[in-house]
Amino acid sequence: MDLKEKHVKEQTEYNLDDLIEELKIKWDYDNFYYDEEEARKFYKFITKLQLDKGVKGQKIKPLKFQFIHTSEILCVKDKNTGFRKHREALLDISRKNGKGSLVSWIAVYLYFTDPTYGAEYIIVANDIKQATNLFNTMNLMIKGNKTLKKNVKITESMRIMYRKSTNSHLRVLANDGANLDSYASYVVILDEIHEYKNSNAYTKLRTGMGLWDDPLMFMTTTASSGADPHNLEMEMYNYAKDIEKGKFKDEAFYSAIYEAEKDCELMDVKQWYKANPALSIFRKFVDIEDFMKKASRIKSFEAKARRLYLNQHVALDGENAINLKLWRECLQEVNLEDLKGKSCWVGLDMAFVQDIIAYVQVFYDEEKNKYIVYPHMFTPKDTLEERSERDKVRYDLYVDKDDLMALNGTYVNNEELFNYIADMNSKYSFKTEEIAFDRWGSGDISSRLEDHFTIFPFGQGYKSMSPTIRDFEIMLLDKRLIIADNDLLTWMAGNVVATEDPAGNVKYDKSKSKNKIDGIIAMLMALARAIFNNQSAFNHDEATEEFLEMMGWGGD
């Protein structure tokens, strides 16, 4: 039996009686015990509910790891009081392993079986969309069961449920921090805490639990970047690890962390299962296999692979975000004469007129179904030697090769730059469809260009750049780019450092990069507009679409 078959069998064909006996032995120590009656009640309850995805009407059958963690949170109790041992619980696991299901099971089970009067059940998601998805999952489970449905009033528009018999509310809220301290929270579930901007939701709702004898806070998450020690996930992860190492005790805190070993090989299948207990069941094996192969070739994907699929704390700020091997495979000699009369989209990066200005054209070759990148880069001639010494870069050699144009003066004169652009467009009859520019750095030149061209303000933050970087890296892999062989642009490609925000959005970061990347930023802006205006041409095959989905640009 291979690893895959063994894992599937273990997770799906377990004997409930044997498993409960194991858990009773595990938790029989000091003043604690595993409540078999509650465990069987919980299992019976959730297996009467319907799945919200898959075959309509299909009942829930928890995997082994799912039952272990939910029952250990709910059913391990104090022998003296009968209250739950665990008041806080952390599940830290790779994406697409059913965190949302566990949230729903615990919330719905306690809401309908716990008799505590006047209790508030608060579920906090990172944003409105996520909150709505969680609410819809629970709503479908409840509506699929006649008994539950008739014992609750559901207000879908407000994501609120109310049970008259216990005077209890269940609310699904977005994490905006507003009014969270106004609830007498009995059961709190914080979903995807790695995306929280701060720990306000935790603090406010945790203090609200002080009214009750048997409260519960359940936190679910995927690994954060690890760069911010004050990220709520990172704080809880370190807290759990310190308990595990014996630095201190906290009997009320429960944790389950699924992560691959540090610095493991991306293609080590054993590590995939360590971080993905649902792998080969509802977490598709081929998805991870395909992504890991690609991550082995595209540098910036490795961090995403390790963080989202191996659940490792990896910040996407390593060097060489662009795979230079793939980049060089796309380099060609490009003659502007051959592009005469064609449409192009342009990116203009003018961060420092005293340094390097990048004007990059992108053409779409319909016959070859490829995008052609042609850079024009400018620098002031009078400070060339000084800056070469300062930056330890031989800009003069790039000028000698015509990869960089030196313009008179100590800064790039806007009028001279505009005249170059106008003369080039006239000489080659280019149809310049749009010029995208950084709204914060283009100054007077944008007003000058606006009189003659369609200009497009383009931000350089995560929201603007992440989709374009995704497209660029896939096109690089698919060899759908023809990049004019310019040594300066290639040098800039080697300087790029990528960073990501808590939600996994990516940008090429000038402040973190080893040296100048102006030409790359201008290229991305131009490429974004070219792709946008040639949408019908930019269609991935089915495999690539699946690949994009599992990259993380989608829901959980």
TrEMBL record:
InterPro entries: P-loop_NTPase (IPR027417), TerL_ATPase (IPR046461), TerL_nuclease (IPR046462), Terminase_largesu-like (IPR005021). Pfam families: TerL_ATPase, TerL_nuclease. Residues 80-241 form the Terminase large subunit-like ATPase domain. Residues 248-531 form the Terminase large subunit-like endonuclease domain. It comes from the Bacteria. This is Terminase large subunit. One of its GO terms (molecular function) is endonuclease activity.
